[in-house]
Design a protein that fits this description.
The protein has ten helices and no strands. By secondary structure, the protein is an all-alpha fold. α2 runs parallel beside α5. It starts with a helix and ends with a helix. Keywords: Membrane, Transmembrane, Transmembrane helix.
Length: about 270
Amino acid sequence: MAHNLMAKRATLEQRSRRLTLIVVGVLVFAGVVAIATSALMTWAVQGTLAHWLLLTTFTAERLLPLVGAGLLLGQMPLWRWPVAAALLVAGIATGLPWHDELMQVLAPLPGAPTHFFLVGPLACLLAGLLLVLPPSLRFWPSLLVMPVLGAALALAVDFSDPTFHDRTYLPWALVTTVWVLLTAGLVAGIFTASWTMIASRVFGSWLLAIGALYGGAYMASKQTELVPPPFVAPPVISGSFPGFDPILKSFERWGPRRRTLQDGREG
């Protein structure tokens, strides 16, 4: 009897996991189409991707902690990963409206104001801290770490805005962030061999090293506070029309006078 119940439970978990992977796969494919369409439209209009809205999203500092968080979610048991994902999303949703308060918390760190408040190294450290743990020990620490990681990712999204507060940037950046998480989670969910657990822990150690090295380098940098640019004194204004002399001189005609139709008639 107990054996039959365990077999039914295992079958149900396999079906649920397969259905989850299918749904996530559809969402990932839809994200690929949307992001590719955005890039192609930018290329068609501007002829380059230098000013693409999502260009700053696909940088190593942004992608590494997102991939780490996605691997964490993908390798968690089926009934646990929704809880961790909800906490991560809650951290992102909290970090966006409370970004001023979070910046005040991070501001005392050396070099924080001049290096985007160290949110990139902080996100790498948090994701790596969970990944280096054995898979069976990741869930309970994630209940504390995931909200903080989500807040750090939210600040990274806010700081990576390449526009002057374009209204379309934040929705696109958040959708792309979720897409990267789902893609990494889908890969981790498909490949469930034992070596993938070892590989994820190795990747977690890399994230810890990257976060520590970059964070330490930023904190040890000589420029630890924002310095305004030097003020250039304006030139001394003189003449009959102060400030307008260069403009008035540009209207003067030097050399031979330009020939007009009236000159032709007179000739």
